[in-house]
Amino acid sequence: QVQLQESGPGLVKPSQTLSLTCTVSGASIASNSYYWAWIRQPPGKGLEWIGHIGGAGNTNYNPSLKSRTSISRDTSKNRFTLELSSMTPDDTAEYYCTRRPESLMYAVDTWGKGTLVTVSS
């Protein structure tokens, strides 16, 4: 069974950088059959794709967030990380790490529980 678990701070101050880690069990993040993605949902709003990293370490980002987003991985620990800089209150959201098959025919098949990140002074 594949499981994803987010970890990181629940509170971030404006202008600071958010760092979240997703620990994966039951599958290898080095698999080239999947994208390992970060998705967020602001309170009362819809889901927003942040970006992903593929099995070869290739990355893609939402153009609206690309300038301040970095996704990396540690294959030895089977986990991947989101760094989102210059945080503002508009970045307050539930953050999820996810897995999705590379084929565009398929949707996300595994979600973490999510972690709420609040941006406040």
How would you describe the overall organization of this protein?
With 121 residues, the protein is mainly beta. It has strands at 3-7, 11-12, 18-25, 34-41, 48-54, 59-61, 69-74, 79-84, 93-101, 110-111, 115-119. Strands 2, 4, 5, 6, 9, 10 and 11 form a 7-stranded mixed β-sheet that branches. A hairpin with a 6-residue loop joins strand 4 and strand 5 (48-54). The protein is globular. The N and C termini lie far apart (39 Å).
Question: Top keywords for this entry?
Answer:
seven-stranded mixed beta sheet, four-stranded antiparallel beta sheet, 0% helix, 50% strand, mainly beta, 121 residues
**Percent of residues in helices:** under 10%
Q: What would you call the shape?
A: globular
Q: What's the oligomerization state?
A: single chain
- Report the uncertain regions: none
Write a brief caption for the model.
The protein has 121 residues and is an all-beta fold.
What topology emerges from the helices and strands here?
Elements: E1 3-7, E2 11-12, E3 18-25, E4 34-41, E5 48-54, E6 59-61, E7 69-74, E8 79-84, E9 93-101, E10 110-111, E11 115-119
Parallel strand pairs: 2-11
Antiparallel strand pairs: 1-3, 3-8, 4-5, 4-9, 5-6, 7-8, 9-10, 9-11
